[in-house]
Amino acid sequence: MAKEKLEVIREAELKNNCPECFNQELALTFYQKHKYGKLFHRTTGEVTHQITCNKCGSHIYPAKWTDDIERIFEYYQKMVTPEKASIKFTNLFYGLVLFLVVLVGAGTYLFLEGIIQF
Questions:
Q1: Which of 56, 96, 99, 116 is geometrically suited to a Cys-Cys bond with 110, CB 3.0 to 4.6 A?
Q2: Which SS3 state, helix, strand or coil, does residue 75 take?
Q3: Radius of gyration over alpha carbons of the chain, in Å?
Q4: Phi-psi category of 113—alpha, beta or left, where left has phi over 0 and alpha has psi -120 to 50?
Q5: What is the pLDDT of residues 34-44, one digit of tens each?
Q6: What is this structure's pTM?
Q7: How many CA atoms lie less than 13 Å away from 16 in the CB half-sphere?
């Protein structure tokens, strides 16, 4: 089973007021989802975000955003450049492919030599 991990793309300190405690210590973080498996490493195009208050520790959900927070969010969202969606295979994958090619080649050779008959 592939493990999913959110990797940080960009972090920004915001000078807007927190809707919960009215302090000016907000942090905006953008994440990109990566999947790690035994045979592959996949970078997805899915980007998520989270705004947290550094003072009270609460997550600020879009329903509680003020107009200022929305404008700042849109500005930083345009600046985020995620990695391209891609897939990279591991050495185990290439080893299994090589093993299967050798196995098929050996079977074909033995069949052509008449050692194996079907």
A1: 116
A2: helix
A3: 25
A4: alpha
A5: 999 999 999 99
A6: 0.78
A7: 22
